[in-house]
Write a structure and sequence with these properties.
By secondary structure, this protein is an alpha+beta fold. Helices cover about 55% and strands about 10% of the residues. The strands form 3 sheets. Strands 3-4-6-5 form a 4-stranded antiparallel β-sheet. A hairpin with a 3-residue loop joins strand 3 and strand 4.
């Protein structure tokens, strides 16, 4: 497999996105303590100060969490190295230029460095007279020395970078509705790669400053009356829009299968409404209906802009669910207006989803072909072994990790996995990535399932590393059809002369420009695996194929014949 700089960069960013979730997970308790201790609630100073202690040390917490997240085996030695590196880096910067304020970025950077150094040097062997400092004990030492070098480097280059970040953040803030719309759309689109956490870390923890704290989230809980714009717009979408989408999917399912999918969709809707965790719902239609997901991203951007127009300021510590809404309401500006906006979004999402699912016959839950039944264990104690079996056995697994809602694995052979079994175990989506990577969308139980898998694999005498992120294979152009399959596709599409252009689009579709639409044999296409055909403008059609779209596009591209 050829590794490019771009694929290595994407892999690193995806791993950073996963690692950021560990320190972010402590924010709900910090927000709860800080909010409950305020004068308008319990008015207990030590409770408020307990929460503020976490917010005041976010950079250090991120240094620890990111370092552990980057470490192959989540070892605490990486976290200790992150602490050492952060303290050294801060001391050097304070000495060189007290005006430098890297904020949470200093913790993210040094945590990443500590994690990478841990992976590289955790088994280092030193000469006998230094053997005590070998192995994992070497990591805090080398991280501390690296922090001295980084401190000197950032002391020189960070002032202009800090100014640029301030200007970018100020543009997003000053751009008002446009900046919020762009952020909202990008936030949803980047969920596909898991990189939305990287974007969020800048907006929530870096951009803007107030009373010594930076970032929209920090400033909101510090009492900044201008903060909360970059969080308020998520509430109507997560509390009202996506639950309405789940209701639309339920009503669009055949009556005979509503009981089968009703419990699932209700749990997805409640998870989004109460906690703001939306990936399980989003992955249920993201690849089956990419145009519908694009509309969801646009509606999210519009919600961000509309809430700003209405001067609504709301914040959250984890995500935009009902728990955080209740927690932050007392600090909000016009927080009550989220309810009428949310009700409008409920109607919009329900109408758009119900119409699109029926009009284009989308295979949303309850409408997909019923898979062959696979017997899987439901005993919680057997969950790990059941997942190991569905993933092709312990010998097929190289590493496993998890973020908030998805397993991140590297497999020896991802073709050996049993997708129906994974779906029977609760998988809401399965992403096949380049280099043997695999992501399984499970919802909030993902981290616990990863632990169960590691435990089950240990019973087979094998130890798994935490999964590194790998580049999504959806856009890969390496795969090809065999000649027999190529001829079958060409015949079903009316012959090579009938195909003017072909391209894989939106991950799972082919866009074809045809000379004569009437020559297409739809029955033959269905037999070849096409889940649907959509007519667009004259002579242009989309075929819904799944992740093999790229290989089929390569095989029937007449320019490569």
């Amino acid at each position: 497999m050829t590794t490019t700089f771009g694929s290595r960069l994407m892999a690193g960013l995806q791993k950073l996105g996963r690692s950021l979730m560990l320190p972010i997970a402590v924010l709900p308790v910090a927000g709860l303590l800080l909010r409950l201790g305020q004068p308008d609630l319990l008015d207990i100073g030590f409770i408020a100060n307990a929460g503020n202690a976490i917010f005041s040390n976010l950079a250090l917490i991120f240094a620890i969490g990111v370092a552990v997240g980057f470490a192959d085996d989540d070892n605490g030695a990486a976290g200790l190295a992150g602490v050492i590196g952060y303290l050294v880096l801060n001391a050097v910067l304070e000495t060189l230029n007290p005006d430098i304020n890297m904020g949470v970025l200093s913790g993210i950077i040094i945590g990443s460095v500590a994690g990478v150094l841990y992976n590289r040097y955790k088994a280092i062997k030193l000469p006998d007279y230094l053997a005590f400092f070998g192995g994992r004990r070497f990591i805090p030492i080398v991280t501390g020395l690296s922090a001295v070098v980084l401190g000197g480097l950032f002391g020189l280059i960070w002032p202009p970078i800090q100014q640029g970040i301030d200007q970018l953040g100020q543009w997003l803030i000053d751009a008002g509705d446009l900046g919020l719309f762009v952020y909202g759309v990008l936030n949803r689109i980047l969920i596909v790669t898991g990189l939305h956490h990287v974007l969020n870390s800048f907006v929530w923890f870096v951009f803007g400053s107030y009373d010594g704290v930076t970032g929209d989230l920090n400033r909101f809980f510090a009492g900044d009356p201008t903060a909360g714009s970059f969080m308020a717009g998520f509430f109507p979408v997560m509390m009202f829009g996506l639950p309405a989408a789940a209701l639309a999917m339920y009503h669009a399912a055949p009556r005979s299968r509503r009981a089968q999918v009703g419990g699932l969709l209700l749990s997805l809707a409640l998870t989004a409404f109460l906690t703001g965790v939306t990936e399980p719902i989003e992955f249920s239609f993201m690849f089956l209906a990419p145009a519908l997901y694009a509309m969801h991203a646009i509606l999210t951007g519009i919600s961000m802009a509309v809430m700003n127009m209405l001067d609504v300021k709301l914040g959250f510590t984890f995500s935009a669910g009902a728990f955080d809404y209740a927690l932050s309401y007392g600090l909000s500006t016009n927080g009550w207006m989220m309810i009428p906006v949310g009700l409008v979004y409920f109607v919009l999402y329900y109408g758009i989803f119900r119409w699109a699912i029926v009009r284009f016959d989308l295979p949303t839950p309850g409408r997909e072909p019923e898979p062959a039944t696979t017997s899987v264990s439901r005993d919680p104690g057997e969950r790990g072994p059941a997942f190991v079996t569905a993933l092709g056995g312990a010998a097929n697994m190289v590493s496993v990790g998890a973020c908030t809602t998805r397993l991140r694995l590297v497999m020896n052979d991802d073709a050996a996995i049993d997708e129906p079994a994974l779906k029977a175990l609760g998988a809401r989506g399965i992403l096949h990535l380049r280099g043997g990577g695999l992501q399984v969308i499970l919802g909030p139980i993902a981290d616990a399932v990863a632990d169960d898998i590691r435990s089950a694999v240990r019973d087979h005498g094998k130890t798994l590393a935490a999964a590194p992120a790998v580049e999504d294979d959806a856009l890969s152009t390496d795969a090809r059809l065999d000649e027999a399959s190529r001829k079958a596709w060409m015949a079903a599409l009316g012959g090579a002369g009938n195909i003017r252009s072909v391209a894989a689009v939106a991950t799972t579709r082919l866009r074809l420009e045809l000379g004569d639409r009437g020559k297409v044999d739809e029955s033959a296409l269905a037999g070849l695996g096409a889940a649907g055909i959509q007519d667009l403008e004259r002579g242009v059609v989309h075929l819904v194929l799944g992740r093999q779209a790229g290989a089929i596009a390569n095989g029937i591209d007449t320019r490569s014949s």
